[in-house]
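Progress against Task 2.4 (sequence-to-structure conversion) is shown through the following example record, which the project officer requested during the mid-term review.
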Amino acid sequence: MGKKHKVYLSFGSNLGNRIANLQKAIFRTQQQVGLVLDISSVYENPAVGFEGDDFLNICISVLTPLEPKALLDTLLDIEQEFGRVRSHGDGYSSRTLDIDIIYYGQEIINTDDLVIPHPQMQNRNFVLKPLSDIAPQFYHPIFEKDTRNLLQECRDKSKLTKTKHKLFKDRIGLFSQLQLISIEGNIGAGKTTLSTMIAHDFNAKLILERFADNPFLPKFYEDQSRYAFPLEMSFLADRYQQFMDDTSQFDLFKNFMVSDYDIFKSLIFAKVTLQREEYNLYRKVFNFMYKEVKKPEIYLYLYQNTERLLANIKKRGRDYEQNIDPEYLEKINRGYLDFIKSHQDQNSLIVDISEMDFVQQPEDYETILQKLEDNILSSTI
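Structure tokens generated for the chain above:
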């Protein structure tokens, strides 16, 4: 294990979803630079030195194994990932993300590429104020003054406003702002597998649909018209009881809840399987129950094409599922998509996983997590 260095970085953004840019930049720093230790409050200030929208600025501290030049290169790559193009000319411009190295331990570095401590930090209120949140007594190795003294002596009196935004060191913190994520999908889509992975990786309470012992299910696949109504009614009663029990008992040692079903699936399946009169009766009972259940903050729908669904169903080898009609699966898919379209007030996220394997391919799992991350940031920040 090589030596790790404590570094202080300044982040700023004045283009696009500024707070989301900062939060995602912290996550990339955690992934590519090192352990994020502290995050300052978020401050807003006018653009300095050019005409542009107001900036949001923060400072963070990171424990990194990277040497100074490697650290600089990595941070420039992160900036570029966010669409930042650094020019070699004079002057400043708006940017989605700006990252500066303020301190690299107590080291003094002066090369053509890199000057540490940052040569302008003592003149920038928007650096010193957030830095004083996390390192008030850190001594500047050249000026031999701590952050509080530098802030007091700073001549930059431009307006700086502390905001109410809260940023998190990692996804666990961000996801913990939720109470419930429901992961839905057709038969064989992989919802239970994904729910289990997320619960494990983010310390969530796992809520799984329990239906393997439903006595009507094998009979339904043999004779749909005869057993559809008792099957759907028994599913509804079971789901309602289970969901109410599971979601009303919050586990104090878990960060949030993730479920591999949403109670509304009962209505989607019932609409496909029931006759019109049966469905109308069923819906009356359903509407009464649906008012009572907890609604998810994110409704994640895993879309898979029918060919892939059939392959997954065959692979998991449940006898009573082996003769499922492809047309039935297509109707279920359409039912889910119609439900999502007709519930615009619900925070729905559709991810097409037809070409993904999030169990065997870590990058596919990461793609899904990033989509969840983006959804949370756009809806809660």
